[in-house]
Amino acid sequence: MALHQISQPEMFALRFYLTSILLILGITVTSILNVCADDPEEVDQEVVVNTTLATPTSPGEFNEETCSKEHNGCCNELYIGEEDSLMKCFAIHSAKMPPPGDSDTSKALKFLSCFVECIYKQKKYIGKNDSINMKMVKNDAEKMYAGRPKEKEYYIKMYDFCRKDAVGSLNIIKNTPSGKAMFKDACRPYLLMVFLCQADYHKKHDCPYFRWEGNRKDGTEKMCEAAKEKCYAVDGIVVPKSLSFL
């Protein structure tokens, strides 16, 4: 059966909705982890997050070094994924999306978790016991980023970090009353935690040019897009026709 084609306005609405839920989830998760942390200094090295920010580049300075770092106003958006995967899973799960004005967070998280599960299923990234199959991630990266080695390496590194980070975070959260309530009806909470980690990975680690995205509201969208194009040129790469949605 053919899936309903998603219009551009629907995609923008989906982007806004997913970002809003992720922000709420991120704040909630951070709050729970902070409350549960007996000693902030004693963090498992396997899941520690590097919070060192990259040095922002100045307008007009585009070279291999500056293109590998944060660019002013271009690293504030959450990364959600490729438009193709989003469109397919939105077409499948749009009926489960809470109506506008519904303030029930549990419904929103249930939709998001099932939506995320769909994305990983589409990509065949789900391994045994709900783990992330890194072999499939690497194979997919080879195809998606053919001729774009930096993006391929970054993508694989992000997944490898987030699959481990999600284990530590989920083990803490699922044993708290608020965590149990939050994930009560969720589809595969572990995958949701991986997705949350990916969404702001570039904010806590390096934010290279291919993760630069602006915001229409802030008036940075065209500026970031132009900067990204210049950095693709620095690497001798033609700007891909289909870039990441966020």
UniProtKB/TrEMBL annotation:
Which keywords, in A-to-Z order, does the entry hold? Membrane, Secreted, Transmembrane, Transmembrane helix
Cellular localisation: Secreted
Transmembrane in keyword set: yes
**Transmembrane helix among keywords:** yes
InterPro entries referenced in this protein's UniProt entry, alphabetically: Odorant-binding_protein
Q: Which domain of life is it from?
A: Eukaryota
Question: Which residues are in coiled coils?
Answer: none
Segments traversing the membrane = 12-33
What Gene Ontology terms describe where this protein resides (cellular component)? extracellular region
Q: Which family does it belong to?
A: Belongs to the PBP/GOBP family.
Protein name as annotated = Uncharacterized protein LOC115634775
Origin organism is Drosophila lebanonensis (Fruit fly)
* Phylogenetic lineage: Eukaryota, Metazoa, Ecdysozoa, Arthropoda, Hexapoda
